[in-house]
């Protein structure tokens, strides 16, 4: 049914402004209307939404009186009137011919609709021509372009085109093709005088209808002339579209020079895409057809006809008011009936403009006769003009399907042609035909408008691409097709901008999500590819045409149809329902290429950047000042051994680095090195491309770092910083996001230099990676060198051979990054990144401190003629320290302190002191960095390293005796050891508890215990008896030992627990030995002697218990037990009573039997060594191997032999003494005593008869056997000895 009269005014813009109506809400009274037209029993669905209306609100028309003479012009004739629009300013009236590129003008205005939402964009006249094809014998000539699923239709006036080409020389290839293949007899019919007469009558009628000048009686008051003028002046051209339009009411008043403004204000993130204006060349001259690429229609309507969505431009005047709110006026000659073509015209016009009624004014020879009101749904049933609306619907669907199935290539210009009087419709691909004429490849006038449209659609999609990545494939295809259409020398700006947008599709700073990747890869491939290969694949896919049951057939006649893409054999086929079906897949290869490989994505980005740079560089004319560089010649990325480089050059490089790292102020005032003018499109585009290249190389460098390819990583970060250097040379102001990114580059450069310093062994491989260059990198460098020498960061990115210099460069990179982050533009934006840089600064300063500390230790070891830090285990080091102590105590029964040698002060070189100062300075700075970010764990680690430095200083200050032996423990040593202890305690305080970081806590705890132990050991072994009393020394040793024991964590189950147990056992052993010595040497004070004896027994007992818990310290256990036996022997020597002596001897023998566990462990290790020797078929015997090679498998056989040398005489002595005492005893022995005596004698006899030259394994077996025999008789198993 038609819309009722009360629906309101169909085109009422609010405040005379352009409007876009979408969704359920309308702007104005009723700018959106829906209508359904019924024809017979079938219903035709039609819906019109006004997107833009330049006309004022409809006014009522003037009803002319009968006998009004339309041949006489009204007073206002041909005056501009917004009510009539362009229909009133030309004698062509409402049926004026379509403007060239009119669909492009609409597409530019409503860019959001292009690609997906709309099927067709065209002038309403072109739509009507297509739907009248089966009814009309007239010729048809239209240009068709495809953008996504949208088809753009424009009239292509071949005759006028050829007239122009005869003057300009263009289109000669098409003229020859047309003359060869098309009926040459057909000529354009000249318009008769009658035709122009009827057009003039129509124009005058329309002007009479808006102003009756006394001869008409208007039904209601319309707008007065003042109001009309006011409305026209107030009319504005702004409405919500993606790009600024050049079309407005004022421009429509007079034709202007054909030009198109490519508003490329594509803004994405923090980057603006391209320069703002690109003037495109004109195709037609000014005049009737010279409106250019503008939207010159009075109204633009989104018309949905059945399931076809069309954006239509219309200039039909609409009148309304009173009882008839929206009507169209038509003038008909009363002597001529309305034919079917005219009826379809009227019906489609009213449907597209949503006008419910038609007012027909009949005249005879220009004299008004009568008016007739006709409803829109009744038009198909007029006399002599009856047609089926369903057939028109079928025609529309078939034409659209035909075009969509054959116009498959985006960017190509298709020509839909039907000759006058012919039933055959042909479709040609003019782009392909044009390309065959090589000398005229770029003469297609549609090429540039199509390319601009593709670019603008892609730009519009980019605005929302961040939220909807499914558009990425579409954007990429649009831009690639855009670039294919344009010549780089003629349109460098669009080409450069398109390539930049292509590079922007790859978000290098975001991780590729699995879900997002799947959606992007729908139909795509993850395999490695090149851009050229993928474009070829697209080309092949896009050339596939649909052929549904033979509906489309290629030309069978080589003379006539060989060049046609598709042919409709008879226009009658278009009336058959669903004769043609569109089966062509929209963009079959537009899936966005997603790769999980970062390097592949970055390489794609760099390829687009390079193409963009080439386009920009090609547009810059000034070449005189450019460096003579060949893009095919590699630019060397030199490496340098900085050990020979002077301090002056280094400082100069550092100052350059810090200067370039800072923010710049002000725009450049002069042309750049390549001749670019600041503010030009080349200038803006190069900034974007340089920055994008810098980001791509940064991501490549970061990926190479993660793969441990540090030479490659340094090469990439060098290229990234060179891009940034060129960016700084071109830009006058560095925005905060650029400075922030630069700080990240400097941080990464520092990381790489640090890794290179720590992995010096692979330097040859790194050098090979660093020196490699791709052709693409060379060409990008060539473009960079047009703007800058790119040397500002050479110091930071050279591959040096000196680890010290690499550490130095790393620290300077971090310092430069820190200076950037605390600068004024970034100080409030970068708290997280500042913490990371401070952590890196603290780390590199720790590394440099450790480096100089190790250098000092190496100097010290070289001076002493041996390495200070032995690679042997802690167990072996302590064993050597304690062995000689044992010999003095047990074998020779000598005093604890050695005689004071002649002391010589050990000199500390200036180089060592310099290393100490550097190391300490870096540790101190590192601690401040970590304290600034509250990192107590790393602060504790640096305090721990500082403590180690103090220990190295202490070792350098030891005294030497005259024969180069170790002298007394010096005050300087004590000072530095105490400083070390202070730093370790500070580290413990910084950590507060083990729960905060157990590994660091355990490390600091171990170092603190070690320092106390070393201090006590040196005080004990090299006692400063020349400066301190023995009692004071013993007190200090005891205090240090007990503090070391305090930090021995015996409870926590960790990897260091055996070491703690061994150290605790060693401490108890040393304390026992010290109290043993004091007990032996103490004279007079009996109370003190008893105290020393008690403490010695206590510590011996604890030492034995701890050594028993260890499985790999048999020698230490044996030594401790032998010392304990010696302590018992010394106690017995002071006793006079035989009973007391016998008791002491029995106790000593029980202690001696506990050595069985140590000998069992020794025997087990000896057997394992023997087994290994047998398996390897060694020719040497076990004993000779022992003597020749020394320690094997953790067992020091020489030490075992020495301990056995002490064990045998001590064991024999005890057995002999106990036998003597038991034999000479006055009391009668019991049976038990007799058995025990026999055992002692038997054991003693076997011990005496033992072969002294027997293998060690045999001797140890004998000892185990004898001790086992004694244990069974004495019951010493209760003492804690473990049975095997």
What's the structural blueprint in terms of helices and strands?
Layout lengths: L31 E8 L2 E12 L8 E3 L37 H8 L10 E4 H8 L8 E8 L2 E6 L2 H11 L3 H10 L11 H18 L5 E3 L6 H10 L32 E2 L2 E2 L26 E7 L2 E7 L4 E3 L2 E10 L6 H14 L3 E8 L2 E9 L13 H18 L7 E5 L6 E5 H7 L10 H17 L8 H14 L6 H13 L9 H7 L10 H12 L21 E5 L29 H22 L19 E2 L6 H15 L19 H26 L3 H21 L5 H23 L4 H9 L3 H11 L8 H4 L1 E2 L2 H19 L9 H34 L9 H18 L11 E2 L5 H23 L3 H21 L3 E2 L9 H21 L6 H24 L8 H17 L10 H25 L4 H24 L4 H20 L4 H16 L1 H21 L6 H8 L7 H27 L7 H19 L6 H19 L10
Parallel strand pairs: 4-6, 4-11, 13-14, 19-20
Antiparallel strand pairs: 1-2, 2-10, 3-7, 5-6, 5-16, 8-9, 10-11, 12-13, 14-15, 16-17, 17-18, 21-22
Account of the protein in words:
Residues 235-249 have a biased composition (Polar residues). Residues 43-561 form the EDRF1 N-terminal domain. A hairpin with a 2-residue loop joins strand 1 (32-39) and strand 2 (42-53). A ten-stranded mixed beta sheet has the order 1-2-10-11-4-6-5-16-17-18, sandwiched between helices. Helix 24 (831-864) runs parallel beside helix 27, helix 30 runs antiparallel to helix 31 and helix 33 (1114-1133) packs parallel to helix 37. The protein is an alpha+beta fold and 1284 residues long. 46% of the residues are buried. The chain is built from 39 helices and 22 strands.
List segments where confidence is low: pLDDT < 50 over at least 5 consecutive residues.
Answer: 1-42, 90-96, 212-292, 512-560, 585-589, 622-628, 637-647, 866-905, 1178-1193, 1278-1284
Shape: elongated
The biggest sheet amounts to: 10 strands, mixed
Overall pLDDT level: 74
Approximately how much beta-strand content do the residues carry? 5-15%
**Overall SS class:** alpha+beta
Number of strands: 22
Radius of gyration, whole Å: 51 Å
Helix proportion: 40-55%
State the distance separating the first and last CA atoms: 110 Å
Instruction: Please give the count of helices.
Output: 39
Enumerate the strands of the largest sheet in spatial order, edge to edge or round the barrel: 1-2-10-11-4-6-5-16-17-18
């Amino acid at each position: 049914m038609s819309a009722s009269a009360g629906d309101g005014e169909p085109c009422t813009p609010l405040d005379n402004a352009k409007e876009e109506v979408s969704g359920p809400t309308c702007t104005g009274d009723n700018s959106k209307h829906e209508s359904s037209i019924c024809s017979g029993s079938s219903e035709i669905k039609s819906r019109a939404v006004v997107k833009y209306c330049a006309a004022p609100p409809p006014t009522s028309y003037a009803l002319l009186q009968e006998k009004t003479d339309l041949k006489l012009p009204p007073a206002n004739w041909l005056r501009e009137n917004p009510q009539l629009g362009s229909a009133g300013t030309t004698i062509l009236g409402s049926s004026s011919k379509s403007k060239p590129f009119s669909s492009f003008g609409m597409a530019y205005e409503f860019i959001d609709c292009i690609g997906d939402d709309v099927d067709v964009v065209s002038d309403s006249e072109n739509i009507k021509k297509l739907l009248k094809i089966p009814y009309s014998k007239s010729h048809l000539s239209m240009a068709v372009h495809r953008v996504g699923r949208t088809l753009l239709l424009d009239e292509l006036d071949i005759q006028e085109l050829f007239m122009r080409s005869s003057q300009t020389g263009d289109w000669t290839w098409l003229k020859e093709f047309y003359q060869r293949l098309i009926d040459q007899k057909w000529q354009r019919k000249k318009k008769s005088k009658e035709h122009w007469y009827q057009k003039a009558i129509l124009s005058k009628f329309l002007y009479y209808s808006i102003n009756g000048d006394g001869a008409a009686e208007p039904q209601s008051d319309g707008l007065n002339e003042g109001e009309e003028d006011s409305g026209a002046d107030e009319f504005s051209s702004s409405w919500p579209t993606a790009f600024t339009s050049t079309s407005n009411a004022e421009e429509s008043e007079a034709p202007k020079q054909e030009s198109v403004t490519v508003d490329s204000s594509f803004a994405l993130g923090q980057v603006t895409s391209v320069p703002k204006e690109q003037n495109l060349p004109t195709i037609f001259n000014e005049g009737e057809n010279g409106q250019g690429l503008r939207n010159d229609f009075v109204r633009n309507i989104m018309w949905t006809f059945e399931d076809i969505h069309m954006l239509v431009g219309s200039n039909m005047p609409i009148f309304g008011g009173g009882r008839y709110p929206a009507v169209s006026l038509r003038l008909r000659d009363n002597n001529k009936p309305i034919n079917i073509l005219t009826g379809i015209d009227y019906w489609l016009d009213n449907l597209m403009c949503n006008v419910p009624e038609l007012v027909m004014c009949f005249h005879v020879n220009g004299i008004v006769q009568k008016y007739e009101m006709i409803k829109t749904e009744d038009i198909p049933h007029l006399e002599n003009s009856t047609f089926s609306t369903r057939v028109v619907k079928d025609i529309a669907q078939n034409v659209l399907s035909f075009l969509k199935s054959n116009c498959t290539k985006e960017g190509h210009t298709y020509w839909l042609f039907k000759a006058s009087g012919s039933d055959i419709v042909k479709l040609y691909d003019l782009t392909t035909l044009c390309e065959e004429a090589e000398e005229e490849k770029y003469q297609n006038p549609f090429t540039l408008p199509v390319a601009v449209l593709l670019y603008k659609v892609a730009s519009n999609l980019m605005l929302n691409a961040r939220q909807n990545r499914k558009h990425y494939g579409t954007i990429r295809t649009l831009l690639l097709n855009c670039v294919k259409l344009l010549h780089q020398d003629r349109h460098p700006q669009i080409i450069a901008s398109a390539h930049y947008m292509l590079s922007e599709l790859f978000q290098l700073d975001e991780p590729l999500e699995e879900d997002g990747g799947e959606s992007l890869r729908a139909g795509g491939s993850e395999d490695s590819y090149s851009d050229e290969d993928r474009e070829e694949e697209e080309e092949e896919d896009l050339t596939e045409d649909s052929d549904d049951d033979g509906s489309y057939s290629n030309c069978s006649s080589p003379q006539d149809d060989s060049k046609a893409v598709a042919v409709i054999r008879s226009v009658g086929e278009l009336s058959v329902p669903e004769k043609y079906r569109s089966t062509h897949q929209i963009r079959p290869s537009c899936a966005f290429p997603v790769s999980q490989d970062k390097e592949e994505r970055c390489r794609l980005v760099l390829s687009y950047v390079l193409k963009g740079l080439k386009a920009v560089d090609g547009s810059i004319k000034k070449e005189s000042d450019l460096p003579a560089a060949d893009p095919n010649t590699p630019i060397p990325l030199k490496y340098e051994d900085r050990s020979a480089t002077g301090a002056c050059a280094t400082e100069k490089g550092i100052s350059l680095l810090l200067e370039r790292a800072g923010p710049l102020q002000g725009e450049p005032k002069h042309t750049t090195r390549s001749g670019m003018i600041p503010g030009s499109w080349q200038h803006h585009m190069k900034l974007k491309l340089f920055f994008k290249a810098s980001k791509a190389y940064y991501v490549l460098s970061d990926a190479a770092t993660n793969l441990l390819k540090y030479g490659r990583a340094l090469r990439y970060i060098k290229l990234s910083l060179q891009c940034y250097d060129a960016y700084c040379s071109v830009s006058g102001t560095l925005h905060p996001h650029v400075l922030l990114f630069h700080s990240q580059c400097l941080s990464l450069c520092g990381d790489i230099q640090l890794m290179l310093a720590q992995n010096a062994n692979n330097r040859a491989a790194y050098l090979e990676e660093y020196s490699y260059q791709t052709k693409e990198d060379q060409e990008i460098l060539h473009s960079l060198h047009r703007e800058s020498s790119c040397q500002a960061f050479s110091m930071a990115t050279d591959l040096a051979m000196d680890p010290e210099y690499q550490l130095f460069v790393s620290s300077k990179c971090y310092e430069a990054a820190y200076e950037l982050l605390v600068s004024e533009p970034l100080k409030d934006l970068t708290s997280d990144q500042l913490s990371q840089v401070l952590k890196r600064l603290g780390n590199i300063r720790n590394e440099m401190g450790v480096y100089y500390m190790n250098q000092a230790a190496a100097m010290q070891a070289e001076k002493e003629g041996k390495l200070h830090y032995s690679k042997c285990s802690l167990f072996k080091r302590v064993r050597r320290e304690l062995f000689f102590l044992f010999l003095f105590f047990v074998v020779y029964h000598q005093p604890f302190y050695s005689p004071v040698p002649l002391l010589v002060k050990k000199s500390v070189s200036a180089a060592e002191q310099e290393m100490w100062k550097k190391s300490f300075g870096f540790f101190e700075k590192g601690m401040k960095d970590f304290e600034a970010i509250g990192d107590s764990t790393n602060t504790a680690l640096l305090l721990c390293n500082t403590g180690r430095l103090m220990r190295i200083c202490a070792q350098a200050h030891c005294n030497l005796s005259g024969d180069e032996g170790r002298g007394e423990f010096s005050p300087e040593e004590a000072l530095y050891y105490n400083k070390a202890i202070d730093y370790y305690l500070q580290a413990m305080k910084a950590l507060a508890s083990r729960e905060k970081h157990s590994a660091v806590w355990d490390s600091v705890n171990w170092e603190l215990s070690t320092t106390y132990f070393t201090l006590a050991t040196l005080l004990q072994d090299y006692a400063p008896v020349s400066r301190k009393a023995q009692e004071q020394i013993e007190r200090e040793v005891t205090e240090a030992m007990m503090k070391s024991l305090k930090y021995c964590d015996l409870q926590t189950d960790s990897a260091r627990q055996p070491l703690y147990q061994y150290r605790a056992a060693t401490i108890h052993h040393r304390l026992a030995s010290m109290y043993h010595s004091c007990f032996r040497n103490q004279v007079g004070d009996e109370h003190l002697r008893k105290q020393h004896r008690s403490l010695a027994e206590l510590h011996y007992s604890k030492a034995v218990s701890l050594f028993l818990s260890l499985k790999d310290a048999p020698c230490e256990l044996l030594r401790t037990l032998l010392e304990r036996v010696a302590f018992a022997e010394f106690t017995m020597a002071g006793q006079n009573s035989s009973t007391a002596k016998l008791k002491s001897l029995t106790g000593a023998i029980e202690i001696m039997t506990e050595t069985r566990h140590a000998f069992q462990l020794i025997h087990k290790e000896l057997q394992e060594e023997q087994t290994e020797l047998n398996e390897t078929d060694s020719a040497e015997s076990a004993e000779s191997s022992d003597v020749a090679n020394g320690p094997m498998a953790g067992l020091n056989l020489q030490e075992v032999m020495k301990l056995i040398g002490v064990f045998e005489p001590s064991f024999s002595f005890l057995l002999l003494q106990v036998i003597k005492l038991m034999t000479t005893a006055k009391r009668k022995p019991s049976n038990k005593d007799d058995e025990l005596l026999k055992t002692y004698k038997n054991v003693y006899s076997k011990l005496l008869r033992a072969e002294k030259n027997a293998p060690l394994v045999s001797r140890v077996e004998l000892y185990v056997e004898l001790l086992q025999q004694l244990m069974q008789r004495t019951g010493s198993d209760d003492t804690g000895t473990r049975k095997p």
